[in-house]
Design brief:
By secondary structure, the protein is an alpha/beta fold. The protein has helices spanning about 1-5, 25-40, 55-65, 75-80; strands at about 15-20, 45-50, 70.
């Protein structure tokens, strides 16, 4: 994260795909990645995609992919 803070903002589009086996772990990972990003003022879009994700959030993620997406294997297989 320090390296990102020292450089220009990254180009738009998905750059990090984090796959975790459990929804609860995905939610914890989201919190643990967002906090340092906010503290460093990086402004990175870090989002979650699981079976609980609303259809409007899914549509938004397709239209404007976040910098980092945290998902489960099941949600990833549906997206592919």
């Amino acid at each position: 994260l320090d390296a990102l803070a020292a450089k220009a903002p990254p180009a738009a589009g998905l750059r990090v795909l984090w796959i975790t086996p459990l929804r609860a772990l995905a939610a914890d990972t989201l919190e643990n990645l967002r906090a340092p990003s906010l503290d460093l003022g990086l402004g990175l879009a870090i989002e979650l995609r699981t079976s609980d994700t609303s259809s409007s959030a899914r549509a938004r993620q397709r239209k404007r992919p976040p910098f980092a997406l945290i998902t489960t294997p099941e949600s990833l297989s549906l997206r592919l």
